[in-house]
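GroES-like protein structure dump, as promised
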Amino acid sequence: MKAVQIVKISEMRVVELDKPVVGTGEVLVRIKYVGFCGSDLNTFLGRNPMVKLPVIPGHEVGAVIEEIGNDVPAGFEVGMNVTLNPYTNCGKCASCRNGRVNACEHNETLGVQRNGVMCEYAVLPWTKIIPAGAISPRYCALIEPMSVGFHAVSRARVADNEYVMVIGCGMIGVGAIVRAALRGSTVIAVDIDDKKLELAQRIGASYVINSRAENVHQQMLEFTRGSGADVVIEAVGSPATYVMAVDEVGFTGRVVCIGYAKNEVTFQTKLFVQKEVDICGSRNALPADFRAVINYMETGDCPAEELITRIVEPEKALDAMMEWVANPGKVFRILVEL
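structure tokens r here:
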């Protein structure tokens, strides 16, 4: 079968692999679409320390069930549209014992710590197969990244009388904006791209700020009537946006960190104490977050087509990645159609 492989830094090619064979308790899926995510970009650029090259990327998946192994419970059918839960959990670490399997100490995500599924077929345990109803495989590939944003909103315990600032309007930020708006909060979206900010308003943001062109602090004071944000969700992963999150959260507010900053971040730590701010991380997503995204997409309100920047065949994956490297702020998702 055909697969895309990141061979070494800045080198990607199409390779041939054996088609996997379904086993007991497993499901064989025909992969239709796989999205490139930020971790794949970092792998390609040599900035992902968790990856050992060569590796098959891909964990944002739209697929169709092709074969079902023995001892798979009812509820799975050949031809069913599905997405995949791409994380593993050991069941023994502190996170797993506490029921937060998304943050397993020994997690191996598809395309990161182990080979992903940017290939024509994949076999997974039935527990990692998520039925997606009438959602097309094309749009199923958007479920996982949006679920990460949904999970961050749950971590933040967002309520309907709160101001929620979302820094970064990429795919994960989009998920956070949607989920916070669905919970009835007043969402303030921040980005440097006006096109992304315009979309943010259409999916639920009440206010937007272009941080390159506007004074973020002044705008935040105006929008929140001087109180600052009750919740700030950092979905970029840069020192500047981490500092912004702490600066703009209000007293006794909550900051949720999704993005990985590649460099050290310097804070005025007195703000942690003075504001008595709660700061927490948010990693991956839980099955409930996947279901919540599916429920949202089934309403028909999701502008899914606008979240797809480009669709390419495997042979054009390298060209698409190079374009993303050149213009990182202009991409929501690049899908590879297999």
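The chain has a mean pLDDT of 96.
lmk if u need the other ones
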